[in-house]
Amino acid sequence: MSQNNNPQRQIPSIDSLLRSEQGQEMKAGAGHELTRDALQAATLACRSNITTLTAMDGPEIQHWLLDYATNWLNDLMSPALKKVLNLTGTVLHTNLGRAPLPRSSIEAMITVASGASNLEYDLDKGKRGDRDDHVEAWLCRLTGAEAATVVNNNAAAVMLTLNSLAFNKAVAVSRGELVEIGGSFRIPDIMKRANCQLLEVGTTNRTHPRDYSQAATEGVCAIMRVHTSNFEVQGFTKSVPDKELADIARQHNIPFINDLGSGALTDLTKFGLPAEATARDAIAQGSNVVTFSGDKLLGGPQCGLIVGDTDCIERIRKNPIKRALRCDKVTLAALESVLRLYANPEQLAKEIPTLGILTKSTDDIEAMAATVAKTAEPALAEWANVRVEPCHSQIGSGALPVDLLPSSAIVLTPKLDKRSAVEDLAAAFRHLPVPVIGRIHDGELWFDLRCLPESETFTRDLDLLKPPRC
Ligand SMILES: *Cc1c(COP(=O)(O)O)cnc(C)c1O
Fold first, then answer.
1. DSSP letters spanning 376-409
2. What is the DSSP letter of 11?
3. Rounded (5°) CA angle 320-294-195
4. What global pTM score does this model have?
């Protein structure tokens, strides 16, 4: 216990801390200003922690401050965006970065990121080219569309399409499709921001062809379909098939815009997965513009793909807002290399990680869960009971919302009889060098192992775990 009755006086000045050996080292690494900020943060923390302070003598306080400042600096200087293990059971998890990219895409990204490229340069003609050129032919080939363009995400694709084809005009959308996707993407709001007027047709559960025909007669300038990505209406329902919507639109000489959301580039039933609308089908059914995400089922980088009739795509490309929403070279390089993989559908599950994960056999996941549990059990003996349980993974990102994939999980039941025990355990896993993210259910922590590449990826850091003390 310090003899001084004002413990604050014991705190050394920032300048003296800066002059100390450790202070000098910090300065050499992080520079004067950051080191000063770190020491200031340490001083503040020390002042607000009187109990710590009064229990220490002068040299101890100095030591405490320098350690605190070093940790503060290390935290600040380590990457904010880091790799995590997604064991939530949702494969395409928007909060966890959605699709992992194929090796070849990562290499393509490194190549274009490292130097100059022919991003907007036509090497044959020796003059200016268009950045869409690198992917348009592939997108047309893979979807059967006449033309294609790319923007930053599918939300941008929808916004730009509406703003280009229906500026200051009305667009018909079924009341059953006025969806909200993840917080800020709501069709009525997007319409407003795109400067379009929403004409709601039909009802929540049933919309008929005549509802759209009537809207077309009343002068809407487009018909839009929005994939009801994250929910399903069951029971007394009716919606108008794409082909019929396309016919109605054609009769009135207006475009039919089809937002697929996830959208697939290939028939997923070939891989034993539930059917999801493909862009090719949507085009074949007569959609004039089809929009979908690059980083959902497609398994590529974050981007929004717009494919369709030449005249519509031309209008979209000429919209000055396109310039504000265009993709960068790194995204285009990744996208192009993923599209090339689609040239050979036989190899897809092997080449595209998202499809590999979605098609992983339940037996393989179960075997991995058994291996993981064997190591986890002794490693966690003090804190939790470990068992293996069957579970269901979700595809996520609005794809196939009701279809679940059988999987296997390890389930941790905290031994500590404390209300926050499971949250504390989950937090301990989130603070591992490679944070592990699971799902809490009924007071237990579930790790669905579908997205785990191999058992060591999970088990090797377990001895670094610092769960709450009993
Ligand atoms: C996911 C989704 C979007 C938004 O796509 P982002 O790529 O997340 O911008 C738009 N429409 C539908 C139907 C979707 O499912």
1. HHHHTTTTEEEEEEEEEEEEETTEEEEEEEEEEE
2. S
3. 35
4. 0.92
* CA 145/CA 227 separation, integer angstroms: 19
Q: What is the SS3 assignment for 356? A: helix
Instruction: Write the single-letter amino acid at 197.
Output: Q
For tokens 């009801």, the residue is 228
H-only helix segments in 31-77: 32-47, 50-54, 58-77
Banded pLDDT at 466 (limits 50, 70, 90):
confident
Q: For ligand 1, atom 14, which residue shows the shortest CA distance?
A: 261
Nearest CA to ligand 1 atom 6: 154
pLDDT of residue 228: 84
Ligand 1 atom with the shortest distance to the CA of 229: 15
pLDDT at 345 over 80: yes
pLDDT of 1 strictly over 50: no
Residue nearest to atom 13 of ligand 1 (CA): 261
Atom of ligand 1 nearest to the CA of 296: 7
Cα 119 to averaged position of ligand 1 atoms, centre (Å): 26
Q: Count the residues in the chain.
A: 470
Rounded to an integer, what distance in angstroms lies between the CA atom of residue 40 and that of residue 28?
17
Rounded CA separation 470/464 (Å)? 17
Contact 54, 1 (CB under 8 A): yes
Atom 12, ligand 1: which residue's CA is nearest? Answer: 261
